[in-house]
Amino acid sequence: MASEVFGIGGYKGAANERYIRNKAVISEYLQRYYYPYFENMFNDISYEISETESLKMQGIDVKRIIHDSEGDIVHYIEEMPQLDSISRTRGPLNAFYIELYNSATNEIGWYFDTESKSQYYLFVWPHTKEQFYTVDDITYAHFALVDKKILQRFLLEIYELDSEKLYDKAVELTEEPRGTKVRTGYKYTDLPFDADVYLYFKTAKSNRPVYLVMNRDLLFDLSEHCGTIANGEMDLMKPKY
After folding, report:
1. Contact 3, 105 (CB under 8 A)
2. Is pLDDT above 90 for 238?
3. Is the pLDDT of residue 54 over 70?
4. Is residue 131 over pLDDT 60?
5. CA-to-CA distance for 88 and 139, rounded, in angstroms?
6. Do 199 and 212 meet the contact criterion of CB atoms below 8 Å apart?
């Protein structure tokens, strides 16, 4: 497996700077609405926002601290906003694109980053005004907090995909593109994949990345909690499992 991890969001240059800026705005949005909601709901929970780039590069955007008389329990959360097509009239994308492999430079995506200390992914699907610069430009956002180990176990038990097999299939798709040809690349849904979990080789992008695309409702079902923030209000949903 390739050892280098490619840039945040899989972007380079000005596009990467825009991604970093937008991700920071989403983080500010979560600090305004998401984290305070759970702190107010549960007296034994608090959140510590990472201030240093060093912690963020380790996959620690936020520490969730569960206070217990026998000792605090700390969880490391990595914020994962889906920042493509965020101002569409019909709403955010109904899936999350998990970065697996950058075929242009032979670099792995964040899913395979063994140096990351994150324990939870906070997936966020924001919807914004066409001009997106500040928190006030976000009209609403869906979210799902997913335990990293539960996600990995789900892919292994249901799709027989451990990290090595998933990486191999991503590389194979770049070496021999197949599946359904779409405008920007190839959508691969053959077994063991299906309509809810599949590979997407985006040939139209300069770094030619491969994503594992997972249906949003499926991630909702796998989550510890999920829901929507709109007009400053939280609407929690009950996960299926």
Report:
1. no
2. no
3. yes
4. yes
5. 12
6. yes
